């Protein structure tokens, strides 16, 4: 299990409080499936068979939709919009590459209340495409809320206490989709 950091005491329930744990959480991502340390399926990302290929759906173990991720086709910054459930009228946040040309991938996250201005991001993801590793920060700060690294043909995510696991998993999949040109993990 991940080490708990006492500097991370604020609760961050972006998608829902039911996805927030007071303890650090380690998750393993193999393909489109996310499992906890006991091997239990926690989340899965589905790609609809019909319709647009630039859409992904995060579901729980009971196949209930948690969020819908949809890529904005006309965006030069690889912009993804995330909606609660399957309701495309209930946008939660937007994720986009910070610039079109990058040596290291930097992605910015703007919550619903911050999407019209986009002056400063609410979360930042920084990582290296070739290493399939990234760190997720609160805002544009050094406060880490989650880290991801590759290990044995899987991704391993350490999510800090009081951070929404569904939110982090959604960010990891979008980050990978941006890096892989839309083909994903």
Layout of helices and strands, plus pairs?
Blueprint: E1 25-30, E2 33-35, E3 41-46, E4 55-59, E5 65-71, E6 80-84, E7 91-97, E8 105-111, E9 123-128, E10 133-138, E11 144-151, E12 154-159, H1 165-179
Antiparallel strand pairs: 1-2, 1-12, 2-3, 3-4, 4-5, 5-6, 6-7, 7-8, 8-9, 9-10, 10-11, 11-12
Protein name: Protein LURP-one-related 13
Organism: Eutrema salsugineum (Saltwater cress)
Family: Belongs to the LOR family.
What do these coordinates show?
The chain is mainly beta and 185 residues long. It has one domain: Porin (Beta Barrel), CATH 2.40.160. Helix content is 8%, strand content 39%. The protein is built from 1 helix and 12 strands. It has a 12-stranded antiparallel barrel with strand order 1-2-3-4-5-6-7-8-9-10-11-12. Strand 6 and strand 7 form a beta hairpin. The longest helix is centred in the C-terminal third of the chain and has 15 residues. The radius of gyration is 15 Å and the shape is globular. The two termini are 23 Å apart.
List keywords for this structure.
185 residues, mainly beta, Porin, twelve-stranded antiparallel barrel, 1 helix, 12 strands, 8% helix, 39% strand, globular, disordered N terminus
- Count of extended strands: 12
Multimeric status of the protein: single chain
Q: Note the beta-strand portion.
A: 35-45%
Sheet of most strands: 12 strands, antiparallel, barrel
Percentage of residues assigned to helices: under 10%
CATH topology: Porin
Put simply, the count of helices is 1
Radius of gyration, Cα only, in angstroms?
15 Å
The structural domain count equals 1
Run of helices and strands = EEEEEEEEEEEEH
At CATH's second level, what is the architecture? Beta Barrel
Question: Which class best fits the helix and strand makeup?
Answer: mainly beta
């Amino acid at each position: 299990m991940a080490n708990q950091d006492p500097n991370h005491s604020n609760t961050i329930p972006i998608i829902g409080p039911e996805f927030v744990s007071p303890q650090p959480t380690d998750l393993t991502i193999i393909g489109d499936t996310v499992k906890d340390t006991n091997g239990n399926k926690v989340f899965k990302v589905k790609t609809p068979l019909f319709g647009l290929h630039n859409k992904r759906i995060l579901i729980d173990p009971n196949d209930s939709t948690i969020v819908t991720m949809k890529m904005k086709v006309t965006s030069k910054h690889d912009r993804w919009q995330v909606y609660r459930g399957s309701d495309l009228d209930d946008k939660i946040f937007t994720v986009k590459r910070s610039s079109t040309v990058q040596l290291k991938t930097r992605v910015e996250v703007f919550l619903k209340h911050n999407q019209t201005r986009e002056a400063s991001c609410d979360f930042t993801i920084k990582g290296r495409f070739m290493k399939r590793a990234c760190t997720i920060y609160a805002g544009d700060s050094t406060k880490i809320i989650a880290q991801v690294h590759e290990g044995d043909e899987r991704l391993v995510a350490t999510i800090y206490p009081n951070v929404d696991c569904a939110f982090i998993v959604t960010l990891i999949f979008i980050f990978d989709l941006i890096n892989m040109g839309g083909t994903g993990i």
